UniProtKB/TrEMBL annotation, chain A:
Record protein name field: ABC transporter
ABC transporter domain boundaries: 22-258
Localization of this protein: Cell membrane
Major subcellular site: membrane
Pfam families per the UniProt record, alphabetical: ABC_tran
SUPFAM superfamilies attached to this UniProt entry: P-loop containing nucleoside triphosphate hydrolases
GO BP term, pick one: iron ion transport
InterPro entries per UniProt: AAA+_ATPase, ABC_transporter-like_ATP-bd, ABC_transporter-like_CS, P-loop_NTPase, Siderophore_ABC-ATPase
GO function term, MF aspect, one: ATP hydrolysis activity
UniProtKB/TrEMBL annotation, chain B:
GO CC annotation terms, alphabetical: plasma membrane
GO biological process: siderophore-iron import into cell
A molecular function GO annotation: transmembrane transporter activity
PANTHER family per UniProt: FERRIC ENTEROBACTIN TRANSPORT SYSTEM PERMEASE PROTEIN, FERRIC ENTEROBACTIN TRANSPORT SYSTEM PERMEASE PROTEIN FEPG
Location(s), subcellular: Cell membrane
Membrane topology: Multi-pass membrane protein
Species of origin: Agromyces mediolanus (Corynebacterium mediolanum)
UniProt name for this protein: Iron-enterobactin transporter permease
Primary site of residence: membrane
Highest taxon above the source species: Bacteria
UniProt keyword list: Cell membrane, Membrane, Transmembrane, Transmembrane helix, Transport
Record field: transmembrane: 28-47, 82-99, 111-128, 134-156, 163-186, 206-226, 255-280, 292-310, 322-343
Family the entry assigns: Belongs to the binding-protein-dependent transport system permease family. FecCD subfamily.
Amino acid sequence: MTRTTTGTTKVSGAADASPARLAAEGVTLAYERRTIAERLSLDIPTGSFTVVVGPNACGKSTLLRALARVLAPAAGRVVLDGRAITEYPAKEVARRLGLLPQSSIAPEGITVADLVARGRHPHQGLFRQWSVADEAAVAAALAATNTAELAGRPVDELSGGQRQRVWVAMVLAQETPLLLLDEPTTFLDIAHQYELLELLRGLHRAGDRTLVAVLHDLNQAARYADHLVVMRDGEVVATGDPGEVLTAELVERVFGLPCTIVPDPHTGTPLVVPRLPA
Amino acid sequence: MSVQTPARAVVLRSAGGGFGIRIGVRHALVVAALLAAALAVGVVSLGTGDFVVPLGDVVAALLGQGDRRTNLVVLDWRLPRVLLALMLGAALGAAGAIFQSITRNPLGSPDVIGFDTGAYTGGLLVIITSGTGYLATASGALLGGFATAVVVYLLAYRRGFHGFRLIIVGIGVAAMLASLNTWLILSAELNVALAAAAWSSGSLNAVGWAQAVPAAAVLLVLWAVAAAMSRRLHLLELGDDAATALGVRTGRTRLVLVVLGVAFTATSVAAAGPIAFVALAAPQLARRLSRSAGVTLAGAAAMGALLLTASDYAAQRLFAPTQLPVGVVTVSVGGVYLIWLLITEARRR
């Protein structure tokens, strides 16, 4: 495969052995006439917990939306299991790949159980609208996200942290081997951010799911990712194991933030400490 | 496990698992009760009028055991009108539910955003240019409705679909079309103008089997499509990104739904003229009764059928023997609802 992006530091990560099920091949991403990224290529290592980081407007969410075929690339293609993602029927993609978008709308008055049940759509048909498997998947998703006791509550009445767990439950009910999450921790307070990240790590460890999340916080990214993707100005600048990728030099080059990297006292993962005049 | 206010549902499933469906109990009960009420009003309507038929005789006639005179009154004169009120009410309710769902706004209803008015313009143009044949008028109404939908959709389209923009543009287009309609009637010859004006507020006074049969045939097809599209309609409510991720082709789905909603609206305009406010009120009233998540097609249709049969009964009886157009009744009742809706929507912001 050809890499057209220049200046990519590739550090082999732990989960990088098997061929990627999901990859972007020379994609150009644009909204109307505004180009976000040109000829971008990226492999998502199968079985990894990949986290994409980068400054605001670097194109990380746009890339994730393209990987989830929510945004059609202006050029290039996204490949899912060896074929262009656009060649699959829409529901077939939805059985392999789930997305938690940055903003979703809960219909007024919908209950948690009903919202989570909507995640089963790709597995249902006109006559097979509610199978035993649907029921089991919804129950498992509610249990995994610790939202089973909220099942009968209207989503409008929940706290921000609870609501985000319910949305995660909906994409879990979809039972896809690939799960993409677009800034899942935004709008959550710090305790709920870690609660959600722990939930994602638990999901990743429990099965052979591949997780891809866009995060803002470098320290959280380094702590939870086993594969880090760093972007700037629509380009992938570095990929690989966070411990090797995340250097003071890189953070300064990408974010323009002078810093020192110290090992996290609890986990040993890189911790970014800004070095700013007092 | 303790669950607060459980969402009670029953599951129907075939032994092989090839068929399975989950039904919210409260929603199903509300739909059944509304339909039963609409049918009851319909049966009462069949018995009332200048020639009063006792309830027992009405039922006998419906079962094919009435005498010749009762059959004539109940089956030939009154039944098509009652059936049309039921069918068109359901069609208007469904059209309202579709547009309120895709605009995510209780104001997004075909009578508010100009599709009724445009369908009426189409019918009016046919009446003025080539006379009053039913099928010609109906085709004019369908074309007018679709042309209006295309214009509103294109004017409202900017970097994707925006429900609120569609409503604002639609209200503007509706106002322009309403003045065009007035001008058309004023400049037409007297007998044409009278025929057109009687139709202008929506009336079931002059309908018979000639309108009921074609309308029923078209609506059956539309209902089959609506049933197949219903789940995708509800997935679109989650937002385009989430719906796409769940395997819905959002652009194509929305297009089919808009065409379906316009077809429901135009079919009813073709049969009975623009009957306002049923599409606006029915989905929201049904939603409040059934406490469903958002509007539902079945609830809106059942409520629409009840609203229109009851309104038509009132239109016949309020100032009997003078017959009001049913649209006058729905406008009077619906106007109050619209004011209430605007006040509560304004307070929420």
